[in-house]
Amino acid sequence: ASRSSQSVRSEDRLPPEDSTLLRVSRGLGVTFWLAALAEGIYLVFTLQSHTFWFSVHKLSGGLLLVLIAAACGLWEVKAMRAKEEETFCAKVPREIFLAAMYFVVAGFVVPATEK
User: Which of 26, 29, 30, 17 is nearest to 84 (CA)?
Assistant: First the structure.
């Protein structure tokens, strides 16, 4: 009985599914992934005539960015449109993974400078 009361308390700490804050944060997440997707497409289609391996590096980076942004963006949309109730244990790993992907992709999209 104490275990079920602990799970109820964990569930109570989550924002309600129709909360404005949750909808806004999901919308901003989808916007981020669309911008990252656009950056990846830009990298792929703006390859200039460099050395072969430099071009392969740029092409691979762009395609990797496109794949990650598309997958994470679709995952955000799926989470937004989910009709069934998810458990706390199902939500937490997804949110941790998405937070890590935000960090990785943002670090990749930001231009590197040596200053």
Answer: 17
